[in-house]
Amino acid sequence: MTALVSKSGVDGLVVIPGQEAACYSATGIFQGEFLVYGYPESLGSNKTARQLIEMVHAEGGVVIAAHPFKRSEHGEGFYGSAHLTRELDLDGLEVEHPSYDEESRRLAGETMSDMNIAGIGCSDAHDLRTIGMCRTVFQDRIDSAESLCRAIRKGHVKALNRILANRTR
Fold first, then answer.
1. Can you tell me whether residue 43 is helix, strand or coil?
2. Could you report the per-residue pLDDT of 57-76, keeping only the tens digit for each?
3. What are the angstrom distances between the C-alpha of 63 and each of 19, 50, 127?
4. CB within 8 A of 47, min separation 6: which ones?
5. DSSP string, 74-86
6. Residues 6 or more apart from 54 whose CB is under 8 A from it?
7. Euclidean distance between CA atoms 95 and 39, whole angstroms
8. Per residue in 85-102, is it b (16+ CB within 10 Å) or e — as a string?
9. The total number of structural domains that make up the chain
10. Domain that residue 96 falls in
11. Tens of pLDDT along 108-124?
């Protein structure tokens, strides 16, 4: 990371490694994708959600459900952990995502509130048009993976959606 920061030429740049892992049940059923921070090595996509969470928590990291209520492009349901989210020992979930419709946003917000976990915003930028659309503002200074994990665990975050903010102006 030090070489990357030096090469950037940006004073005070903080680079925090993270990863997105897809999880599958023991019988191969997709359980969703999860954002992981504070885990020292690649996790791959060959674990159940519970195995992933247990491994990451053992290292002091955090696990966030990535777009749990993103609508499936192939019929009914969601492409994410959806209602399984409530059964997992998560540290947070995405409450703002570019592909969320009103129902997805409502379900994510209710789940976050009921579980008393952090709600974050992510652009999930597979498309240049979505970069920065949804983001997370941290109340605490973030200067390491440890401080990021601590802020998420405390819920010292606020999810923002640029499109929704512009509608209220």
1. coil
2. 999 999 999 999 998 887 68
3. 10, 10, 24
4. 21, 23, 24, 55
5. SSSSBSS-GGGGG
6. none
7. 23
8. beebebbbbbbbbbbbee
9. 1
10. 17-167
11. 999 999 999 999 998 77
Phi, psi for residue 120 in degrees, rounded to 5? -115, 165
Query: Is residue 2 domain-resident?
Result: no
Please state which of the ranges 13-22, 34-43, 79-88, 120-129 shows the lowest mean pLDDT.
120-129
Alpha-carbon distance of 37 to 146, in angstroms, equals 9
What is the Cα–Cα distance from 33 to 66, expressed in whole angstroms?
5
pLDDT category at 125 given cuts 50, 70, 90 is low
**Quick check: is 22 in a domain?**
yes
Domain membership of residue 41 (yes or no) is yes
The residue count for the chain: 169
Residue 132 sits in a domain whose CATH number is 3.20.20.140
3-state secondary structure of 146: helix
pLDDT digits (tens, 9 = 90+) for 93-111: 999 998 898 999 999 999 9
**Residue 14 amino acid letter:** V
